[in-house]
């Protein structure tokens, strides 16, 4: 697992909570995933991929990368020396994972939130926090059917640069963002 060098600074956000219209300060932190987090990682991956496919195709459809729903993908992530894997923590609650590879370009391998945390600004805050520390060209793939993901990445400055078709006729969109030192 790669070394993570992120400052312990947090990003604060003023957000409106539901219909209560009160301001809340949200603190986003990262911590490096460790082996004992395997169940958490597997749970977040499975819930996140299932949520995306159910939104697109209905409750009975569950789609994701190979091994996302049986622990194989989690083991691959944990055992990889090329991945940096972070647990996303919002207001002291673990709510997601960010898995990336530093290279040319940097690759976002998996960026998943437990669905109960979606729509609260946590993903955008986590991405901005990473941007503060990790500059360069970032690239990712997301399923063509996941309109919510497309909106999220475009809202956060990514541009669609291509498509990729797999053997099963599944299509992914490729997004890229350049983050420059200011």
UniProtKB/TrEMBL annotation:
<dbReference type="GO" id="GO:0016747">
    <property type="term" value="F:acyltransferase activity, transferring groups other than amino-acyl groups"/>
</dbReference>
<dbReference type="Pfam" id="PF13508">
    <property type="entry name" value="Acetyltransf_7"/>
</dbReference>
<dbReference type="InterPro" id="IPR016181">
    <property type="entry name" value="Acyl_CoA_acyltransferase"/>
</dbReference>
<dbReference type="InterPro" id="IPR000182">
    <property type="entry name" value="GNAT_dom"/>
</dbReference>
<feature type="domain" description="N-acetyltransferase">
    <location>
        <begin position="28"/>
        <end position="180"/>
    </location>
</feature>
<protein>
    <recommendedName>
        <fullName>N-acetyltransferase domain-containing protein</fullName>
    </recommendedName>
</protein>
